[in-house]
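Field log, afternoon session.

UNIT: design team B
ACTIVITY: writing a sequence onto a fixed backbone
BACKBONE:
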């Protein structure tokens, strides 16, 4: 009887994650891959914009340093140029980097919750939502592109002459909408992973706290 009671206690406090079907696992993996790929592309664009701004600044500096103002045209940076540079840096570089770091830590902890001591780096997860900015930016740009195409058609009254532009803008709009929805689903998945990992670790700590109070142990 004592062994039976101990076996019941083991079954009661054993932490088991419900297995998911292969189709669900593959669907989650595809959503995460698409989200990560989109942010990686935004990160590459951010690196390109940064290098472009640095190149322009270096070329302007050469004109002043080597006094070749007659041979080159230095770029005068004003208030708007600095604001644009900062926005490009935040939207296309910092946000995707925060997303990729947050997703990587969240998925790693979810795969091995027993070894995840609720990292202090969890704060990166809160930066994943602002990472939607690049996707929203692309989606709004595609909306404006599609609307401007339709406006040109209405002005010229010649839909057949612009059918390729209508088709390309429509496909671009659908693609950006699909990527935006996928980004939102990916963020929700990471949010669920984080909550599952947190619940797992809290439950495990509660079980470890209750074990010494049990008769005969486990």
């Amino acid at each position: 009887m004592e062994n039976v009671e101990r076996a019941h206690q083991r079954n009661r406090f054993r932490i088991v994650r419900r297995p998911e079907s292969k189709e669900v696992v593959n669907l989650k993996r595809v959503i995460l891959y698409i989200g990560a790929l989109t942010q990686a592309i935004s990160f590459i664009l951010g690196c390109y914009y940064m290098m472009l701004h640095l190149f322009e600044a270096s070329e302007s500096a050469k004109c002043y340093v080597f006094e070749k103002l007659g041979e080159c045209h230095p770029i005068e940076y004003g208030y708007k140029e600095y604001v644009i540079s900062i926005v490009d840096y935040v939207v296309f570089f910092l946000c995707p980097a925060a997303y990729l770091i947050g997703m990587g830590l969240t998925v790693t902890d979810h795969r091995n919750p027993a070894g995840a001591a609720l990292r202090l780096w969890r704060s990166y997860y809160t930066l994943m939502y602002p990472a939607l900015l690049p996707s929203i930016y692309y989606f709004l740009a595609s909306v404006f592109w599609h609307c401007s195409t339709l406006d040109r058609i209405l002005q010229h009254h010649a839909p057949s002459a612009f059918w390729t532009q209508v088709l390309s803008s429509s496909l671009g709009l659908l693609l950006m909408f699909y990527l935006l929805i996928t980004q939102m689903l990916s963020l929700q998945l990471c949010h669920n992973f984080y909550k599952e990992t947190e619940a797992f670790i809290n439950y495990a700590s509660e079980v470890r706290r209750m074990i010494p109070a049990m008769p005969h142990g486990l």
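LOG NOTE: The longest helix spans residues 163-210.
NEXT ACTIVITY: expression trials, pending approval
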